[in-house]
Amino acid sequence: MATKRTCMALDLIDNAGLIASYEHYHQPGNIWPEIPAGIRDAGISDMQIYRIGPHLFMIVEHDDSTDLPTAFNKMATLPRQDEWAAWMGTFQQKLPEAAAGEHWATMKPVFLLNDHLQ
Which residues contact 57 (CB under 8 A, 6 or more apart)? Predict the structure, then answer.
């Protein structure tokens, strides 16, 4: 099955203490076990979050048959996912490009090397 990659962006509140807390809660052993289990149960095979300053960049990998909005909606119905999202929302700033009710905004690809190779 083909894998699809979706990239998303988000800004944290620009406060060193809040940013440090956000990173702390995402370290192994600190994230609630229901969170990675719920991500996988929703059809997401991998998720990575990177940070530069207060800016976050998330890479979500899923198979072609997984519709990402549907996967995120499913995650919200799984144990503790909504609670985690609400808590993490206290560290985040909604991007203007984000959909209603969301903090993360899907990024538009600008350059894909494979599109330029023959």
Answer: 7, 8, 9, 49, 50, 51, 107
pTM of the model: 0.90
DSSP assignment of the chain, as one string? --EEEEEEEEEE-S-HHHHHHHHHHTSTTTS-THHHHHHHHTTEEEEEEEEETTEEEEEEEEETT--HHHHHHHHTTSTTHHHHHHHHHTTEE--TTSPTT-S-EEPPP---GGGG--
pLDDT tens digits along 72-114: 889 989 999 999 999 999 999 988 999 888 889 999 999 999 9
